[in-house]
Amino acid sequence: MSDNVILEMRNITKEFPGVKALDNISFAVKEGEIHCLVGENGAGKSTLMKVLSGVYPHGTYSGEIYLNGELQRFNSIRDSEHAGIAIIYQELALIPELTVYENIFLGNEIRKGMRMDWNETIRRASEMLAKVKLDVNPAAKIVELSVGRQQLIEIAKALSKDVRLLILDEPTSALNEDDVDNLFDLMRDLKSNGVTLIMITHKLREIMRIADSVTVIRDGKSIVTLDAAKGEVSEQVMIKHMVGREIDNIYPSRTHKRSEEVVLEVRDWNVFDPVIDRQLLKNSSFNIKRGEIVGFAGLMGSGRTELALSIFGNPAHYKVDGELTVNGQQGHFHHPQEAMNAGVAYVSEDRKRNGLILIQDVRENTTLANLRALASRGVIDSNREIQVANEYRTSLNIKTPTIQQKVGNLSGGNQQKVSLAKWLFVQPNILILDEPTRGIDVGAKFEIYTLMNRLVEQGMSILMISSELPEVLGMSDRVYVVSAGEITGELPIAEATQERIMQLATMN
To answer: CATH: 3.90.1300.10, 3.40.50.2300, 3.40.50.10990, 3.40.50.300. Which one for 5-243?
Structure first.
């Protein structure tokens, strides 16, 4: 790593109607380092990177950008790309039905005269794939590849443009542990070959593995830059600067004792997906008691989400057999409405596609799942709807200027709170939370964990699916481990460790 500064952003201020997203932010990145940007959702990290990458052109913000000491005025994304800057967003921008080589050179096509030079495109694509150490057929379609491989193809696409500064926005949000390890190895290789990297992430432990330096942003302001080589980077230090206060334990303690009353029991549960001709779950049995949080751990693809969906009215139309007892009543649910009527709610892991309607506002999303409670003779009571939305806005601390704000404009943490509000309005006594804190910051996580504790203290039961083992250990009363469609173990929290969970998660 050089001491030369490759990038300097000085006094960057960016305003939207009614909101100052960036407030006089300044920070510098040294050549050949991995520099992490961290902060709560809505702190301004992504907005800052959109200024840098030309998404917000010069003139729409105030302040200065220097690249290798030269003042830059990017009027478009193409301007920043010509300067050697590339950004890879959390939601990958690949076209599923096109091939790997077509995606790598999309928008940057190789031509021979007026025609595409496909032979040269495939040859160059193979070179880029070798650079990211990805052994796939360049002619394979993107839709055929795992998320981890797609992430590497996005990086190959960036490298094809002779990138000098690579920005990665939440690159590990959908990756399993092996894919994360591969990505970090690649980042280190790129760094050793002279590429400078900026990574936006919420995952503090990953920052400690990979970062040379860390800049913390809070409320649109740059708070501090920490140097890993000087021992300045730790979870507690980052949390303190992110939230402006000490959080000694991100997992708040619970003092209540759960009931021994079983509210949900599954016996010999089998789930088959006829579309892909695959057995998803085999002979699975478990139970949940009133007022407890039961964690479900396992690797991606183990069958945890499929288990939740098969219980919650089977919206994917799996073939299901086995015994399901909910609140003393036995029988399968054939539609999510039946599950809701029985007191079961399901918060999807994919809030943007399955949990919320992003173009609708907070009010509409909050009441969407239980409009019947607001209707009289088929007419919605608008005043009551506004009252309900405002009540959940207050009780869940949803940070929005108004309940008329479109949900798509909220931060990830606040979107998740709206998704929770939607299902809490159904008034369930069993709540299924699928990856409840995916893609949200430490402050929002703490708020959601506090809410979960409050709900179980009121007698609710929670089934929590999580890929973050510290979260499973920090929030669960009991843990079930799923491996290749089978429940391979049940652990009381006093006996559960990351090592024991991983042993059970890799049994099949």
So the answer is: 3.40.50.300
